[in-house]
Design goal:
The protein has 327 residues and is an alpha/beta fold. Helices cover 47% and strands 16% of the residues. InterPro entries: F420-G6PD/mer, Luciferase-like_dom, Luciferase-like_sf.
C-alpha cells in the first residue's frame, strides 16, 4: 500500500516546504484540495517545489470550470510537473455549487460522465487541429501549439454515494475517498460498488493525528470529525458505523449556532477512534495496517478544523516523520 500525503501550509511558501519534506520522506503522491485555495494553483506550487512525487488534486471541483478550462489546466500542470500530474475531480454538494459558485446542480452523475469524456477528448485531440466532439463540447478551428507531456492524463473521481462510486469504477483511472473512510466502510460499502479492475487505483483518505498522549491526538482530530458530522448529507455514512445518535448531537449543536469549526467538544472519543487515524505512532501504524488489501494507496492529511495553525503544523511534522519511518 503506497503512502501519499496532503501537505498543508498557512502560506504558499509553507505549502511548498511541506511538499518537499513529504517527498524527501518518501510520499509517493502529494494531493491538494479545493476549498480555501484553488486546487490548480496549489498543484502548480507543488509541481515547482518537487521533482519525483506525483502531484494530484483531491479534489478539483468538476462543474465550476468548463471541461475545456479543466483540460487546459491539467495539460499545463502535466507539463509543469514533467508528466507527474493526476487530475482528481469531485462534484461537491448542491449548496456549494449553486450558492457558492452560481452553477447549476443537475444530474451530477451524468454530468460527471460527460465532463470526463470531454476532458479526455480534448487532451487527446487538441494538438491535431481536427474537430473535437464531446458532450457539451463542439470545437472547430482550434489547435494547441504547445507540446504535451501525455495525451491521456489520469483522472480519479472522488465519490461518496453509490451511483457516483459506480461511475468512478466504470470510467475513472482511480477513486478517492472522503476524508473519513474506515476500513469496514471501504470493504463493505465502497469496494462492492467499484468493480475494481487491473490498474485501477483505490485511494483511501485519512485524517491522521499522532502524539505520545493519545488523548491529545484525538482532540486534534475531533474538530474535523465534527465539521463533517454537521453535514446531513453524510447521515448514511455515520449510521453505518452506529454513530447516528452522535451525528445528531453534532447537528443539533450546529443548528443552535455553533460554527462548523467549533464542534470538537460534542464529538465523543468513539467517533474519532472509528473514523480517523489518531493515537500514538504505534497505534496509527496498527490502524494503517487495517487498510492492507483494501486500498492501493492511503492519503494522510493533518487535522485542519477546530485547531490552531501551530497544532496543524505539529500534526503535519509527525505524519511526515511516520511516512519516513514506514517508507
Amino acid at each position: 500500500m503506497r503512502l501519499t500525503y496532503g501537505p498543508w501550509g498557512e502560506t504558499l511558501s509553507e505549502l511548498a516546504s511541506s511538499a518537499r519534506a513529504a517527498e524527501d520522506a518518501g510520499a509517493e503522491t502529494l494531493w491538494v484540495p479545493e476549498l480555501h485555495r484553488s486546487a490548480m494553483v496549489s498543484a502548480a506550487v507543488l509541481a515547482g517545489a518537487t521533482t519525483r512525487t506525483r502531484i494530484g488534486t483531491a479534489i478539483a471541483l468538476a462543474f465550476t470550470r468548463s471541461p475545456m478550462t479543466t483540460a487546459l489546466e491539467a495539460l499545463d500542470l502535466d507539463e509543469l510537473s514533467g508528466g507527474r500530474f493526476v487530475l482528481g475531480l469531485g462534484s461537491g454538494v448542491r449548496r456549494l455549487n449553486e450558492d457558492w459558485h452560481g452553477v447549476a446542480w443537475d444530474k451530477p452523475v451524468a454530468r460527471m460522465r460527460d465532463t470526463v469524456a470531454a476532458i479526455r477528448e480534448f487532451t487527446a485531440g487538441c494538438r491535431t487541429g481536427d474537430p473535437i466532439e464531446a458532450p457539451g463540447m463542439r470545437i472547430r478551428g482550434y489547435q494547441r501549439p504547445f507540446p504535451t507531456e501525455r495525451a491521456r492524463i489520469p483522472i480519479y473521481l472522488a465519490a461518496v454515494g453509490p451511483a457516483m462510486t459506480r461511475l468512478a469504477g466504470e470510467i475513472g483511472d482511480g477513486w478517492i475517498s472522503h476524508e473519513l473512510c474506515s476500513p469496514a466502510y471501504l470493504r463493505d460499502r465502497v469496494r462492492p460498488q467499484l468493480n475494481v479492475r487491473p490498474g485501477f487505483d483505490v485511494v483511501v483518505s485519512a485524517c491522521c493525528s499522532i502524539d505520545e498522549d493519545p488523548a491529545v491526538a484525538r482532540r486534534r482530530a475531533a474538530g474535523l470529525v465534527g465539521f463533517y458530522a454537521s453535514v446531513r448529507t453524510y447521515a448514511g455514512f455515520f449510521a453505518f458505523h452506529g454513530l447516528g445518535a452522535e451525528q445528531a448531537g453534532v447537528v443539533d449543536r450546529f443548528r443552535r449556532g455553533a460554527g462548523a469549526d467549533d464542534l470538537a467538544d460534542v464529538v465523543p472519543q468513539r467517533m474519532v477512534d472509528l473514523l480517523t487515524l489518531s493515537g500514538t505512532a504505534d497505534q496509527v501504524r496498527d490502524k494503517l495496517a487495517a487498510y492492507e488489501g483494501l486500498a492501493g494507496a492511503i492519503k494522510l492529511t493533518p487535522p485542519t478544523h477546530g485547531v490552531s495553525s501551530e497544532e496543524t503544523r505539529v500534526a503535519q511534522d509527525r505524519i511526515i516523520e511516520l511516512i519516513g519511518d514506514l517508507a
